[in-house]
Specification:
Layout lengths: L2 H5 L3 H32 L4 H25 L2 H11 L2 H26 L2 H7 L7 H9 L5 H16 L4 H21 L10 H32 L9 H33 L3 H37 L3 H28 L1 H6 L5 H33 L4 H25 L3 H27 L14
């Protein structure tokens, strides 16, 4: 059999990848929708509350994303345990996930206490900063359920059981609307809370979402929590899981800050340029939800194959993930390239903003193909238990290629916002190429299971 034939996924494997990815995409959209709902409801209060909510939400996610990445250590640990049918490893992994979720809840909450000095250091508007700080501080009560939900989500994905997560996200969004209606606008006898009421409502909604998920998945989760394994409390295996997950969190942090810095630099070019940038980025973020879902499915399926000791299947799963995810992004790229004006018109009627957005959208067409490739490739590596090298490659791509090149084109050669976007595109292209090569190397030979209990 030729090497190409060995790598070619079967129709059943492609179908399985798409079927697992689809609900994960819907969950990603639902999680994203909670912030959109907050923004829409705050927009009816005042411009200051809307801006403070956006700023506070940005601070929240740029900080919390490290914790989300740490919990993704559960992907290889649980998925490989499922593939190997190793119930002891699965139970210990879930129990250590509980400890990790509590740890990141405390650490991230502690960083929220410094929101005021950080936002003032970034020279944010004086009328917005106190409101944004209030939003961040009132997000702290929702930290434990937020990370508990993310922990359980990773576990359930490893078992390819996504339906409870979807239902919990839907219920959480409905609860968020209700709590916001009461706490933002001051209904049912409550005082109007504005942006602080939004944070309070979202924190309550996160408790609802986590409780619903526990209730719906208890039959699957309980046997992995009871009885509690004393080994799950040992610090050394917990440290090894942290060492596996922290590079993922730092990788996410580096990427989020790269995009944040580009947004800041675009803001230096004026309001119209920034608005056009936000439109193009919003479109790219929307389509990115699909490869994000495929990436989650890829980590699970590759993890299952590695756990079962079937490296040939892990290679076919990797190819299937890239075919599904990158294929979708290529189709979206064609639409972005062919219809930039129509897409820009859907967002704004301002002619200057529309022109800027229509200038950036074709660049986003190229950008997103590489973006889809890199996120799926890093998830394939995560499923195989390879996180440290992927983090290094990612940081080099964004901070040694993308940001310096974009700034050079934009400011030294007067390339403006398109220059910044071409720099990001170059960074994503570098990440995509290096991560794909890393996948090829990693899956080119034997891949050992992640064993946090038995590492030397």
């Amino acid at each position: 059999m030729s090497r190409f034939a060995q790598l070619r996924p079967t129709t059943a494997e492609l179908r399985e990848m798409a079927q697992l990815a689809a609900p994960i995409v819907l969950v990603n959209v639902g999680m994203h929708l909670m912030g959109v709902i907050d923004a829409v409801m705050l927009g009816r209060v005042s411009a200051a509350d809307l801006a403070a909510g956006a700023l506070g939400n940005f601070y929240f996610y740029v900080t919390a994303i490290i914790g989300i990445g740490v919990l993704m250590a559960l992907d290889p640990v649980i998925a490989q345990g499922v593939g190997a049918k190793d119930e002891v490893a699965i139970a210990r992994g879930v129990q250590r996930g509980v400890w990790l979720s509590l740890l990141v809840s405390v650490v991230v909450s502690a960083t929220f206490l410094g929101a005021g000095p950080v936002l003032r250091l970034l020279r944010q508007p004086e009328e917005v900063t106190p409101l944004a700080v209030g939003y961040v501080l009132w997000s702290i009560p929702g930290m434990i359920p937020f990370f508990a939900f993310n922990m359980m989500r990773q576990v359930l994905q490893a078992f390819t059981t996504i339906r409870p997560v979807m239902i919990a996200v839907i219920v959480g969004n409905l609860a968020n609307v209700g709590f916001n209606w009461v706490l933002i606008y001051g209904n049912l006898g409550f005082a109007p809370g504005g942006v602080v009421g939004s944070a309070q409502g979202t924190s309550l909604a996160r408790w609802v979402m986590a409780i619903v998920l526990v209730a719906l998945s208890w039959r699957l989760i309980k046997p992995r929590l009871v009885p509690w394994h004393p080994e799950s409390n040992q610090l050394r295996p917990l440290g090894r899981m942290l060492a596996l997950g922290l590079p993922i969190g730092l990788q996410f942090f580096a990427e989020a800050n790269a995009f944040g810095l580009v947004t800041v630099m675009t803001g230096w070019m004026g309001t119209t340029t920034l608005a056009g940038h936000e439109i193009a980025l919003s479109l790219a973020s929307l389509t990115f939800m699909v490869p994000m879902g495929v990436a989650g499915a890829a980590a699970v399926m590759v993890g299952h194959a590695v756990g079962a000791g079937d490296i040939a299947e892990s290679r076919r799963d990797a190819v299937a993930a890239l075919a599904v995810g990158v294929g979708f992004m290529a189709l979206m790229a064609i639409g972005f390239w062919c219809f930039p004006d129509a897409l820009a018109n859907a967002y704004t009627t301002d002619p200057d903003t529309r022109l800027m957005a229509a200038t950036l959208i074709p660049i986003a067409a190229v950008f997103q193909v590489f973006d889809g490739t890199q996120v799926i490739s890093t998830s394939i590596l995560r499923g195989a238990g390879d996180t440290r090298v992927a983090m290094i490659l990612h940081m080099l791509s964004f901070w040694a290629v993308g940001i310096p090149l974009g700034a050079l084109i934009a400011f030294r050669f007067d390339g403006g916002a398109p220059g910044l976007w071409w720099g990001l595109t170059a960074g994503l292209a570098a990440a995509a190429v290096m991560q794909v090569l890393r996948v090829r190397w990693k899956l080119g030979g034997p891949v050992e299971r992640v064993r946090v209990d038995h590492l030397s």
